[in-house]
Amino acid sequence: MLLLDGKNAVVYGGGGSVGGAVARAFARAGARVFLAGRTAVSLERVAAVIRAEGGVAETAVVDALDEGAVDDHADGVVAMAGSLDVSLNVIADSDVQGTPMVEMSLADYLSPVVTAVTSKFLTARAAARHMVRQGSGVIMMFGGTGDRAPMRAYHLGGLLTAFDAVEAMRRQLAAELGPSGVRVVTLQTSGIPESIPADADQRAAIEADLIARTLTGRAATLADVGDVAVFAASDWARTVTGAAINMTCGAVLD
């Protein structure tokens, strides 16, 4: 059974590691995938893999902070495919980390908040306008709110504030869009080791910390994220909205 057969799915940030993994999973589940992002080369690389596996993928260079570009792209998807059934935004939030908050500028602290709220609002709104008219659809966020314990080992700046802001947006969108048959969910992760750049400072230490926080001794993989995303986007999850789907392997307890 193809859980997403006949569905049209937009993945913002589709050229990245997480977005690419989800896009491939969507395509394997039968969806026609529309990859959007700022770098054509990375988008085409993912699209080529999907096509080689027998899937259907389209690409478009879209700045998710550009209101007109986001709206035009969503309109174009519907004009081409007839519907917009799934919208997932996995674009990394611009942030400044490594500086204690007491030494951080206001602009640096607000950077991830402004980026996250702007891109998630614009992409969700563009999708919702079409989904409300068709009476169905799924809008998905990615990341969620982490452990409430103080993150003393890291100077994360406004990143956690950005996550909380997006979660507040998700809850309000779910409340407003539910009567129109539109679901809004978050794919909650405490970190995906495979998504950490190979040349990142302290990569090994970060990966070890992510795994140590879990209850299972292993963190979620990119394949895990793709599988959960397919479930969340499908009718098998039709009762799930306004919620975060916890894939933290117990790093965050509900």
TrEMBL record:
- Gene Ontology molecular function, alphabetical: oxidoreductase activity
Keyword Cytoplasm (UniProt): no
Q: Which InterPro entries match?
A: NAD(P)-bd_dom_sf, SDR_DHRS6-like, SDR_fam
Q: Which UniProt keywords apply?
A: Oxidoreductase
Keyword Protein biosynthesis in record: no
Q: Which family does it belong to?
A: Belongs to the short-chain dehydrogenases/reductases (SDR) family.
What this protein is called in its record is: Enoyl-[acyl-carrier-protein] reductase (NADH)
What organism is recorded for this protein?
Actinokineospora iranica
